[in-house]
Design goal:
- The protein is an alpha/beta fold.
- 29% of the residues lie in helices and 23% in strands.
- The strands form five sheets. Strands 3, 4, 5, 6, 7, 8, 9 and 10 form an eight-stranded parallel β-sheet that branches. The chain has a six-stranded mixed β-sheet with strand order 18-17-20-12-1-21, with no helix packed on it.
- Helix 7 crosses helix 8.
- The longest helix has 23 residues.
- The protein is elongated, with a radius of gyration of 24 Å.
- The model has no long low-confidence stretch (mean pLDDT 97).
- Bound molecules: pyridoxal-5'-phosphate.
Length: 367
């Protein structure tokens, strides 16, 4: 094989168990499998999650939900985003659980639902994206309750800076939390059952135990990356994805000869260069050019020159044991992980793993 991603399912299971132990076994975990499970493969991740008793998943598009149903997933699937009206019939036939921000969506679902449809609602407490304003939460809950085909089964919000260690951001999360609790109280006081309450993303799982409610929705944490330090005892998690390739050519380069587009790297001495068939079209960021170390045979070798669409080069030095067809680790495993690669390229691990292209086969270890 040319370039492949190893998805370490046993690590994913370990991460689920670490989060379960942290939050307490009486609370539920919704596993976000949107964007093909952050690039790890939604169906495999969902099936593996079932082994630990997970009974809720979430997706971003109706199509993603339908694919899980076709793959045999029978558990609840929350639809995080707002679908287009034309997608509502498929949402209903795929038995996805919509999350309602406004009365229009409630009405559209109520009109098209054939039997009782479980829905959740969302309150915007400061993310500024989906959700109704907190002061309209009661009106929305009432409206949903008045729709004969809809059943309010859950109420949620989403945090903007729960993964930040800075004190203003910590205060902002607490402000979001108190707005959410106030809105929940007005709903309950009016005699409406808000259903299962959920708010916490990965940052809030690590830093804000008071946001855990009935269910948490950590994504990046389950895939093995901490985007913040936690309060208290460190959570033991491991990065799930490893990207590997092979050395397809070794060549000698003379001092002062250059490599790749733009000639950004020049040999300071006679050296050996390995060509690796992985590039930015595979999802290995071009911004990593000249800034990243790959690992071959347990030793680190720096990238030399720009990452191209389908290949990159590494400097093996004046003498090296590396042989043609040896395996090379790009990230994860014995190399630094996607989080470190994100730091070097000015992004977040979410973007690294979800950008690993479809042409890169995923190889699953036993979970
Ligand atoms: C993606 C998403 C999550 C998970 O976020 P992480 O930062 O990966 O934990 C939780 N809730 C909603 C609404 C999301 O869109």
């Amino acid at each position: 094989m040319r370039t492949w991603a190893i998805v370490h399912l046993e690590r994913f299971l370990g991460n689920i168990n670490a989060v379960k132990t942290r939050i307490g076994h009486e609370k539920r975990i919704c596993v976000p499998v949107k964007a093909d499970a952050y690039g790890h493969g939604a169906l495999e991740i969902a099936k593996t999650s079932l082994k630990t008793g997970i009974s809720c998943f979430s997706v971003a598009t109706v199509r993603e939900g339908t694919e899980l149903r076709k793959g045999g997933i029978k558990e609840q699937i929350l639809l995080f985003s707002q679908p287009h009206p034309e997608e509502i019939p498929e949402l209903i036939s795929s038995d996805l659980t919509p999350i309602i921000s406004d009365e229009w969506y409630a009405d559209a679902l109520n009109k098209q639902a054939k039997s009782k449809l479980s829905v959740h609602m969302k309150i915007d407490t400061g993310m500024g994206r989906f959700g109704c304003p907190a002061e309209e939460a009661l009106a929305l809950a009432r409206h949903i309750s008045s729709c004969p085909k809809l059943e309010l089964k859950g109420t949620s919000t989403h945090f903007a800076v729960s993964d930040s260690e800075n004190s203003a951001d910590t205060a902002y999360t607490q402000h979001q939390l108190s707005g959410f609790k106030d809105a929940l109280n007005t709903i309950k006081s009016a005699g409406i059952d808000p259903g299962i309450i959920h708010a916490a993303n990965s940052g809030a799982v690590l830093r804000h135990p008071d946001t855990w409610f009935d269910m948490v929705r950590p994504g990046i944490l389950l895939y093995g990356y901490k985007t913040t330090e936690e309060n208290g005892e460190p959570l033991m998690i491991q990065s799930v994805m490893e990207l590997r390739t092979i050395v397809v050519l070794i060549k000698k380069l003379k001092k002062s000869e250059s490599i790749s587009y733009g000639r950004t790297w020049t040999a300071s001495q006679d050296t050996f260069i390995a060509v690796l068939p992985v590039g930015y079209a595979d999802g290995f960021p071009r911004l990593a050019s000249n800034k990243w170390q790959t690992v071959i045979g347990g030793k680190s070798y720096p990238l030399a020159g720009r990452v191209c669409m389908d290949q990159c080069c590494v400097d093996l030095g004046t003498e090296s044991e590396v042989k043609r067809w040896d395996e090379a680790v790009i990230f994860g495993g014995t190399a630094a992980d996607a989080s470190a690669l994100a730091a070097v390229t000015g992004t977040i691990p979410y973007e690294i793993t979800s950008n690993i292209n479809k042409r890169v086969p995923r190889i699953y270890t036993n979970g």
